Amino acid sequence: MIRKNQRFLTRLYILADFSVIQISFLIAWFIKFQSDILPYDSPPAGYGALPFETYGKWSLIYGVIAILIGTISSLYSPKRKKRFADELLKIVQTHAVSIFMLLGALFFFKEINISRYYLLLYVLLNLLLIMAYRYVIKLGLKRARQKGFNKQFVLILGAGSLGKRFYDNLMQYPEMGYEIVGFLDDYRTFDGIELKKYKPVLGKIDDLGRKLQEMMIDEVILALPLDAHSKYPLIIAECEKAGVRTLIIPDFFDYLPARPYFDNFAGMPMINVRDIPLDIAANRIFKRLFDIIFSLAAIIVTSPIMLFVAIGVKLTSSGPIIFKQERVGLNRRTFMMFKFRSMRVIPEGQIDTGWTTADDPRKTKFGSFIRRTSLDELPQFFNVLIGDMSVVGPRPERPYFVEQFREEIPKYMVKHHVRPGITGWAQSNGLRGDTSIEERINHDIFYIENWSLLFDIKIIFKTIRNGFMNKNAY
Questions:
Q1: What's the rounded Cα separation, in Å, for the pair 431 and 406?
Q2: What 8-state DSSP symbol labels residue 40?
Q3: For residues 38 and 115, what is the distance between their CA atoms, to the nearest angstrom?
Q4: What's the pLDDT score for residue 350?
Q5: For residues 421 and 451, is the Cβ–Cβ distance under 8 A?
Q6: What angle do CA 299, 300, 303 make, to 5 degrees?
Q7: Staple 177 to which of 92, 145, 246, 396, CB 3.0 to 4.6 Å?
Q8: Paired residues of 179 in beta bridges
Q9: Do 324 and 376 meet the contact criterion of CB atoms below 8 Å apart?
């Protein structure tokens, strides 16, 4: 049967959210009406200031609205498998809808003399305090699960390559609190080396009903080949009879994105093979606004450094300060990417199609320095302002190499579904310069399929923390 832990946590989250909303009310009331922090906003002519009780009543109403909206939007659904970034987005969406409903109720009941400064502070405190306490709980649960508490038990159907691959992947996430009890398979058993690595095969697929009665199992994972499709109805029926969750790993999952999106077409459920969060207009707008604000700030902050580099380039070699090179960007469109010139000028008529090497004679001494420190990349913030690039995204490549890699590396062209970036998930993990193209593409695809503004900020901080020195940048 399904464990009761999740139901308890759901009730705890609902109670905690409602309590935090009322705490936010008390703090907002104190700051607005008992302190001198916020300016005084007088009520409309003919109306007096509302008493504490009225604000408290509307805070209780808002709490009920937020809980109802959160329940409808699955804010209180199980979170063990979800990223905290997804939870934050749900919180913002829930409270955005809730505040609009509250404003509508205030207008309908003609409660027009509610302080605007109070409402703004109230909503911000709700968001900040709920995000903070949920993050603390998430960390606490992760640590508890790593120590063996709050476990959930998993049975895998299929001991072939698909089942073993899922086992290996799940073992990398002990903080999720899952324990695999074993496998069921009609044709395979483990012995020798495999038994040292994997839990045993406990029986045949037909033994599922008996195992669900004998053992504490919370979830059954179907990792069966396509030719076992006929067994699915009986398997799912047995799991539902026992009250156990059933999850299916499709045998063609290698073709699917990290987070598949189910669509509906002509009344039939379908899997979107390449769902990209930045295909959503709102996400593109948020990312673009972030890019503009961040790149403007970066240009202002680094302007003294850019002036120093520009003078250094001019004094150490002849030619232009800025080097422009054609790169492939969003939707396979080409653009001119800006860099501080680090090499000697290529003679007219000669085409550069080679990689830069450690002892490349084309580099200047000053050029070697700015390449190692990534200072040559600073002009790309102007590419971001123009709209050719983003602060975070897959690194763009020259058309010559794009044509070469698209034939040699699977999924290489997926990176062109989003704007290229100054830094990216691959670069922040050390995959820069002379490193594996396949590994970089895998990181780029993971970023594209899991994009969020918080993920962008994480990559930026990780890039800064790791430093700008690059031993692979020749």
A1: 19
A2: P
A3: 11
A4: 56
A5: no
A6: 75
A7: 145
A8: 153
A9: no
Strands (E), 200-342: 201-203, 219-222, 245-248, 261-265, 268-272, 322-328, 334-340
CB-based contact 156:183 (threshold 8 Å): yes
- Each residue of 388-415: pLDDT tens digit? 999 999 999 999 889 888 888 878 888 9
Cα–Cα distances (Å) from 231 to 226, 237, 247, 268, in that order, read 10, 10, 14, 22
- DSSP string for residues in 418-474: S--EEE-HHHHTT--SSS-HHHHHHHHHHHHHT--HHHHHHHHHHHHHH-S--TT--
CA–CA separation, 198 vs 168, rounded Å? 9
Element (H, E) at 390: strand 390-392
Kindly state the tokens that stand for 178: 């899952």
Residue 181 burial class via C-beta count within 10 angstroms: exposed 0-12, middle 13-18, buried 19 and up: middle
Pick from 405, 398, 393: nearest CA to 456: 393
For the beta carbon of residue 247, count every other beta carbon within 10 angstroms: 13
Do 394 and 418 touch, CB atoms closer than 8 A? yes
- pLDDT for residue 357 is more than 70: no
The two beta strands, 322-328 and 268-272, are unpaired
Single-letter residue type at 165? R
Q: Does the pLDDT at position 1 exceed 60?
A: no
Q: Which domains does the chain have, with CATH numbers?
A: 5-146 (no CATH), 152-255 (3.40.50.720), 281-466 (no CATH)
> For residue range 101-125, what is the model confidence (pLDDT) as tens digits?
998 888 888 877 788 888 899 999 9
What is the DSSP secondary structure assignment for residue 259, as one 8-state letter?
S
- Residue 135 CA: distances (Å) to CA of 22, 131, 132, 160: 19, 6, 5, 37
User: Could you say which DSSP state residue 35 is in?
Assistant: S
Matching residue, tokens 């508490």: 149
Q: Which amino acid is at 386?
A: I
Structure token pair of residue 80: 């063990």
One-letter-per-residue 3-state SS of 150-208? CCEEEEEECCCHHHHHHHHHHHCCHHHCEEEEEEECCCCCCCCHHHHHCCCEEECHHHH
Hey, what are 76's tokens? 């209180």
The answer to whether the CB of 337 falls within 8 A of the CB of 325 is yes
Rounded alpha-carbon distances, angstroms, from residue 47 to 50, 110, 117, 458: 9, 11, 17, 48
The string of pLDDT tens digits covering residues 176-210 is: 788 899 999 998 888 888 888 899 999 999 999 99
Taking the complete model, does pTM exceed 0.85, yes or no? no
Residue identified by tokens 């498998």 is 81
CB-CB contact of 390 with 287 (8 Å) = yes
CA distances from 25 to 95, 130, 225 (A): 14, 13, 55
CB 311 within 8 A of CB 331: no
- Concatenated DSSP letters of 400-421: HHHHHHHHHSTTGGGGGGS--E
